[in-house]
């Protein structure tokens, strides 16, 4: 059987049983390759389950630095009998299957076009350990040791990582080192040159960090000055709130008094969570909630209130597969419309759409400035792929001169000086009125906040003209938002392009790789990465500059297309939708195939 | 409701409190509720309580949900910020407001539909969390604004004005509040100002979740024979367990006492609560006893009113969350942002 050879360019997939302790061992494997200066990305494909169901961990090693999911498998570490058939079938021809050969598996269960690497992991582990839990946990480390040897990873790097991981539980270091060696030695002595995939030390990682989006989001909220968080547990957003709590414990406990400069409430449901955020923001604190699709559905009425009563709020939506419970542990970009037009009645909301954890960190911090400046809900739309997977991204930066934009809040001094206060009065021409905070002044500036119609001075009114005046101002305020939200990132191809591509969010790394591959085949495309809603002029201009525009989205209904058609008045026929919505992370291969097919069709049509 | 605007002139001899405010300074817009509505009496009692307690009106935040009762914050404390939120969700908004600034007095005004039906979940969880507030339900057993449907507090067997019969069991918000950890629980009747005012004052002096259920007849839809929330019915079945008087350092309020024993309780804010017992064996500091008493009197068809329970060592949500002394909404970048130094450490630990 011929062996596929590859240096620093392959995909390793671990097939495990959920709850078997494989996650931390697998993650250490990925980090070890990074420490050797070779870029990797990893993706956790996990079930909605705590113990027993199948789970996969996919590591893409890419010396060239492609960070999207590639698709295909070069080395399958098959540790889960439940998924054996599917796992074996997914291996690329000429590639490798590594499995636990302690129990015999009939020949019919293998393929003859792949290389089989057998290792009696259970036997080795059972011989070395008595305790059943230890047998299981160390088995994971043993296979990592074997892979270290097979792929040429420096074992010292792994030993150091183990030391770091257990720096607070030192007694665990030696046994883990021992298990690692056990696997390493076995592979050296028995497996020889069974695998021609190799990791070679390089210098391609630089200062980049390896981090999950949800951790970055929690940190972004700390940096953005959030003091109140209210949330309800829901996959895949739970780790945002947990990260915020963790970072607050580190950065926000007053050194002198031991008291907290933050408040976190685990609400009874998402309705309560957004209500608490609205109450806190109304009262001048920076507040946020983190949720996913079903939570957004529950928050609709309150989101309409915040829009209409003009109350800041930050909502981090970690999108998952919908509708309904859908695929709670799979990724999608399918909450665009439900967020953009959340609530009954006429509403429009600001969306920020980050491409990776670094931008997510930045957008979370920025969201509080925008929420207070615009006095309206700001949605940060990330997804499960960004949120729950470790991404290799540029280190985070912060300008220490940066000050928070607290928006238009009239102070006691201004009120005392006789400045006119009308809660819904547009004094600056940007349609953003001034607000006052409760308790500011003994006799001036108090007003009644309500979700019902009122005049410019916050007095209840059901007059048609008064209502329309306010609704028109809200529209103008949304115009103002266009100049404040992050602008799209437009990149021109090396050669003049007739066709453009629009993409956004977690599609970015796969898109970059696809563009490079397409360019190598002579297909040149200009690109625009959308980063926010509302759309600025630049968005419309980009679309109008091309005969046709591909629009890559991770949902079934081309929701971004609907939004662009609706808001920019564009003929829907100008868009060619590329839709990926099976819940798996989108790959460069998928995008390349879709674009190449359409491009060759188009050129053929042109030829005819 | 009346269409006559309130005169701007005031009598020169009108009484002022220690802060120099008159009653008028605690009033709000003119009520749009029906003439004779119990809710207006409650609004007046709240105004009176704030006046007596020398509370600066702008240091109160008044919040409500949706319904007749939830309109009333507009009719009191015109110098306070108000928030008329969405139906049944005032408790979460109040929770957030309180988190942002612990220095204000939070007054939640709600009704039986708003708190016992659509908002039951938020009501109990807000109380559970120990939010420092005064939460008043103006309880009339019906939906007024939608013209007379039963609410969840309507007693089983009640007759609606249109002749309907309520077959469902009632929810008692007082029992519910006791069960989920309210540290001040009272019940009153909108027709009994002498009981309401000191009860509201005591609740406002309480440093934890204070709940008062006030039976407040709906003159338009639930004040007929066969209703247990009608003026006549409540007067006949009202069983006050005590009378309160909150004294010193403020002026005491005159309360008509029925004979009985009197107990004085020192409150943490320096004032003294004088309790005149009307039911000799009733101890408002015994939570379990209070729950038992309520159930047995309810079974006898009586409505227990007065101070039902108080924990004089109450802690609130901020104490549970160990927040800093300063209001969170006043913290600045310096307090909140770890800056580039913090990020350097973060980046280093993620490589």
How would you sum up this structure, described in words?
The complex is a heterodimer of chains A (608) and B (351). Chain A is an alpha/beta fold and 608 residues long. Helix content of chain A is 39%, strand content 21%. Chain A folds into four domains: 6-198, Pyruvate-ferredoxin oxidoreductase, PFOR, domain III (Pyruvate-ferredoxin Oxidoreductase, domain 3), CATH 3.40.920; 211-393, Rossmann fold; 412-484, no CATH class; 489-607, Rossmann fold, CATH 3.40.50.920. In chain A, helix 4 crosses helix 6, helix 5 packs antiparallel against helix 6 (173-191) and helix 9 (270-282) runs parallel beside helix 11 (300-309). The longest helix of chain A has 21 residues, at 464-484. Chain A is globular and about 85 Å long. With 351 residues, chain B is of the alpha/beta class. Chain B has one domain: Rossmann fold (3-Layer(aba) Sandwich). Chain B has helices at residues 38-52, 68-71, 90-100, 112-117, 120-128, 173-179, 193-204, 231-237, 287-299, 317-321, 333-336, 339-349, and strands spanning 60-64, 81-84, 105-111, 133-139, 142-143, 149-150, 184-189, 209-215, 238-240, 242-247, 262-266, 272-277, 303-310. In chain B, the strands form three sheets. Chain B has an eight-stranded mixed sheet with strand order 2-1-3-4-8-7-13-9, with helices on both faces. In chain B, helix 3 packs parallel to helix 5 (120-128). The interface between A and B is large, with 72 and 59 residues. Strand 18 (448-450) of chain A pairs parallel with strand 2 (81-84) of chain B, so a sheet runs across the interface.
List the defining traits of the structure above.
heterodimer, A: 608 residues, alpha/beta, Pyruvate-ferredoxin Oxidoreductase, domain 3, Rossmann fold, 4 domains, eight-stranded mixed β-sheet, six-stranded mixed β-sheet, 24 strands, B: 351 residues, globular
